Structures are given as structure tokens and as C-alpha cells.
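Backbone-to-sequence.
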């Protein structure tokens, strides 16, 4: 007899949860990438932080600028995964967190793709290689520092 209230509770939660998700998705505010001030390359439980330089310090090889200019080629064109050619692997190789002072946006990088966890874009070979080499170099430096300390 006690099992019925539990079944009713579980059924009610299952019915309520999708409507909650739908209303959250309907109220979703897109992240304003133009106002990004920090990019964090998450490495283990820490990361490398890249800050937006002042306009007079613009240098295309500066970390923030280099990463940001590659990302902005794709973040505005993210699409549902089913509308794209399936990537060869969905394994995440890098995680980035972008912060714009008001909100943050998590971006996942995989084998020639980028995703905001809702949508995805396939990346050009050169952009993918440049981005992953840049991030990989910083990750290796962090690992070496960890070993030496």
C-alpha cells in the first residue's frame, strides 16, 4: 500500500520536469560574446586565464585575442547537432569558460567541433589545429610547472 504514494510522486515529478526544462529553454538568454572579458582554459581542477587586453595593446598573438578570434568564427553559427554532419568523435578535448561580466558561457572543443552544450558547429581544419595547438601548449606548460613545483 505504501508503494502507491511513491509511484504517484515519481510520476508527478516526471511530468513536471519536462515543462520546467521547456520554460527554462524558452527563457534562455544568449551569451553576448562581444562583451567577453575573460577566457578560462579549464585544465584539471584549475586553468589558464586569458584577459581581454586594452584596445591599445592589441596583438593577434596575444592569448585572449588569438583564441577569441577563432571562437567568434563559430559561436554565432552553432546549430542543432542533428542538422550537421556527425563529427567523427564526440570526445571533449578542451573546455573553455567565457565570462562577460554578467554571465558565463561554457564551450566544449572536440575533434573539429565546438559546442555550447546545446548546439554545435564543425570547425575548419586550420582553425581547429591552431586553437588546439595553442591550448595544448599552455596545458603542457602548466603540467611542467606542476611537476617542477
Amino acid at each position: 500500500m505504501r508503494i502507491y504514494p511513491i509511484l504517484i510522486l515519481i510520476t508527478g515529478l516526471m511530468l513536471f520536469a519536462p515543462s520546467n526544462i521547456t520554460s527554462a529553454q524558452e527563457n534562455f538568454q544568449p551569451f553576448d560574446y562581444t562583451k567577453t572579458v575573460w577566457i578560462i582554459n579549464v585544465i584539471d581542477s584549475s586553468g589558464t586565464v586569458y584577459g581581454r587586453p586594452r584596445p591599445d595593446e592589441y596583438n593577434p598573438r596575444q592569448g585572449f585575442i588569438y583564441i577569441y578570434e577563432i571562437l567568434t568564427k563559430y559561436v554565432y553559427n552553432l546549430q542543432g547537432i542533428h542538422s550537421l554532419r556527425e563529427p567523427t568523435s564526440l570526445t571533449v578535448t578542451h573546455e573553455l569558460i567565457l565570462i562577460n561580466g554578467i554571465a558565463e558561457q561554457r564551450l566544449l572543443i572536440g575533434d573539429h567541433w565546438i559546442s555550447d552544450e546545446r548546439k554545435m558547429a564543425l570547425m575548419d581544419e586550420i582553425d581547429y589545429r591552431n586553437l588546439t595547438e595553442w591550448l595544448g601548449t599552455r596545458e603542457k606548460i602548466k603540467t611542467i610547472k606542476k611537476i617542477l613545483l
